[in-house]
Amino acid sequence: MTYSQRLHVMIYLFTLFLCGCDIQNSTSASLPQTVKPTSYSQIQQVFDQFDYRWTTLDRGVPDITVHNFPADLSTVPNVKQKKHLFFLSLLPMVLTQNEKVMQQRDQLQQLLAQYDKEHTLSARDNDWIKRLMKEYRFSHDPLNNSTHRKQLVSRVDMIPTALVLAQAANESAYGTSRFAQLANNIFGEWTFTPGTGIVPKGRPVGETYEVKKFSSLNDSIQSYINNLNTHRAYSKLRASREMMRSNQQPLQAFYLAEGLLNYSTRRDAYVTEIQTMISYNKLSQLAQLERRKKSTFVANAFVRTPSKKISSNHRRIHDYL
Q1: Do residues 177 and 201 make contact, with C-beta atoms less than 8 angstroms apart?
Q2: pTM, 2 dp
Q3: Is residue 319, in this structure, part of any structural domain at all?
Q4: What is the pLDDT, as a whole number, of residue 235?
Q5: Number of domains in the chain
Q6: Element (H, E) at 295
Q7: Exposed/middle/buried for residue 4 (C-beta within 10 Å: 0-12, 13-18, 19+)
Q8: Is residue 105 in a domain?
Q9: Which of 52, 118, 151, 312 has a CA that sits 20 to 30 A from residue 5's CA?
């Protein structure tokens, strides 16, 4: 590396330091970058460094973690820009959490198939299943009871990106709500342990629930996915999702939203609102997004692996947004 190249890398690292980023290991764009912004412009700066915007989503989603939403997010002058910042901020973390769940699902199904063949599992594999059952709040025997097995497998599955983003936008007012700002809570989740959350204004007398606090946006996403995958209030959503799997259909966020009747006291009106947000923002088109691969920073220029040429009659993802 020449002196000029080293100088450019140093300038880049210093820029990320100023915008509150945690640099891990090197300047490779394939490594996770954690952004702790104090202003929305700092998020935009990092996205620009990665050439990450609506018009480049066909190239994949870089591994960026936005720790929190800044207080000035509500001052973004353009509504479309604010929406894009919000959705782009959450996309990498949603993909990460869903990838984790799908890895668990694959391993669970492999172990179940192994048990059917060999009628036994190693102590290590048994411990893994027990930890999984605890995470997904399941207490029945999935090895020797086919009904219980199906119930557990139906819990260990992803939540479509479109549904996650629509609910996050709705529940957090695109990251500007009081609870999103003070507690990193973007899904309105409650806690019933007094003193551990934030007491909502107008809480009825005698009620003890509080709005749950999270250390980061990523923790809020993880908790939300686990909530939909485990709580009995969303059993209809899980049943619909498993039916789509059985019929070898893609998971359709619009229809799975019908399983959210119990998420809000507004019930049908809430479901309609989430479905409208999915449709209006064309969020279902994000289902085909993948993790960005082989992208690196070299000096001051962003170098990408050449992609296949897309024919003129092929619509890119951003054409729908």
Answers
A1: no
A2: 0.82
A3: no
A4: 97
A5: 1
A6: strand 295-298
A7: exposed
A8: yes
A9: 52
Terminal C-alpha separation, the chain = 40
Question: If DSSP codes are grouped into helix, strand and coil, which group holds residue 193?
Answer: coil
Tell me: the pLDDT tens digits for 107-127?
Answer: 999 999 999 999 999 999 999
d(CA 318, CA 33): 24
Torsion over CA: 139, 212, 187, 205 (sign): positive
Question: Hey, what are 237's tokens?
Answer: 């959503």
**Position 316 in a domain:** no
Got the DSSP string for 219-282? HHHHHHHHHHHH-GGGHHHHHHHHHHHHTTPPP-HHHHGGGGGGGSTTTHHHHHHHHHHHHHTT
264: tokens are 């809000």
Q: How far, rounded to the nearest angstrom, does the alpha carbon of residue 27 sit from its chain's CA centroid?
A: 24
CATH number at residue 245: 1.10.530.10
In a domain, 214, yes or no: yes
Q: Which of 7, 111, 43, 184 is nearest to 33 (CA)?
A: 43
Domain enclosing residue 174, as ranges: 8-307
Cite the DSSP H helix spans in the chain.
3-18, 40-49, 79-118, 123-135, 146-155, 161-172, 178-183, 217-230, 235-246, 253-256, 268-280
